[in-house]
């Protein structure tokens, strides 16, 4: 990249950062104008399209405006500044250019984010846990995590997600938050380790956002996580909100809790508590005692897709559905296309739900793992189908998933991980076949509405 372009990019980013900090009381028109500035920064057309989409939502008075105002006005100033600088500027705007430049130099386009399990130790014992059969003997060394984050930043990755196990059992993670102050950290946590002292530490750093695991409201959460757990999480949310810190909530959709997770009551509760983002993951029969009966039905999966569409149009919150949002990511994001998972033992998995690997991050660089035969094979086949409401090689195109796991991976990453591809294969095939007509009808409707929208825009 030439000197002129570097100066131009630096100037745009600094101006955008300063402008965002001044917009806590901005008018709708000013927010809309700011989107034009943001559109000048990324090189990739797909990012420019997303910014134009956001601008249209602003013009329509979408609830997203309320979310923007919450980011700009209602929270701890340091936390607000870190969200703007680390996530909006470093990761989304400048980061996409850095990732594109990395591709031009190396031939490999980096993922958007890295998911790392610093430990598989946990202070709960939830039934159906996806990570329940991983070894809990060893943690991923801090120096290895530090190296991976550094290598990621060199590629343009400024979003690091921690899961486990319970990440906050690793007290030394705070040294990483402090050292990598230009990175946004997102931590999936059961919340048991969070107290006022930890909230104060998070507030002093500003660049880490917890995602608290819930199963719904009190009845559903306490059933899976233990009596009194829901109330503790409520207290944690209140502490975070009082400190002016944003937090997310992570849910696991099962056959037992779908209607609660998709209810107005639950989402209204999250908004009231100050939640900024709801992650919804579908239970997949992996990990601890795989159980097809816990898996939400095809009809329930489709129901949640419809409910999230409703919530996005009416609630001042962000909503991410790991399986139903394939239309927003052009299908599967695994295998380093948009993310990967590094276990506490160092195994590099294509996805947190794909419990197989070929490489270990202790032995190879991040770039080497991205270019492994396993990951290249996965990326060469993505998307698995033309219908992005069926994005997953595990449960939507299970024949593909079995071929990848059994014929291209070197090993499974914990005992009995192969059960999904052997003993449960027929049942997974049946699930896929039952969901397909629902997903195809939804995809046809989505494409029809999308095409009519473009025609209307073209006049």
Can you give a write-up of this model?
The chain has 18 helices and 11 strands. By secondary structure, it is an alpha/beta fold. The strands form 2 sheets. It has a 9-stranded mixed beta sheet with strand order 7-6-5-4-3-2-1-8-9. Strands 10-11 form a two-stranded antiparallel sheet. Helix 1 packs antiparallel against helix 5. The longest helix is centred in the last third of the chain and has 34 residues. The model has no long low-confidence stretch (mean pLDDT 90).
Key traits:
alpha/beta, 51% helix, 459 residues
Q: What is the gist of this entry?
A:
The protein contains 18 helices and 11 strands. It is of the alpha/beta class.
Q: What helical percentage do the residues reach? A: 40-55%
Q: Give the overall average pLDDT.
A: 90
* DSSP summary, beta strand count: 11
Low-confidence stretches: none
Please indicate the percent range of residues in DSSP E strands (runs of 2 or more): 5-15%
Number of helices: 18
**Radius of gyration using CA atoms only:** 21 Å
Strand order of the largest sheet: 7-6-5-4-3-2-1-8-9
Major sheet description: 9 strands, mixed
Rounded to the nearest angstrom, the distance between the terminal CA atoms is: 38 Å
Morphology call: globular
Which structural class do the helices and strands define? alpha/beta
What letter string, H or E per element, gives the SSE order?
Answer: HHHHHEHEHEHEHHEHHEHEHEEEHHHEH
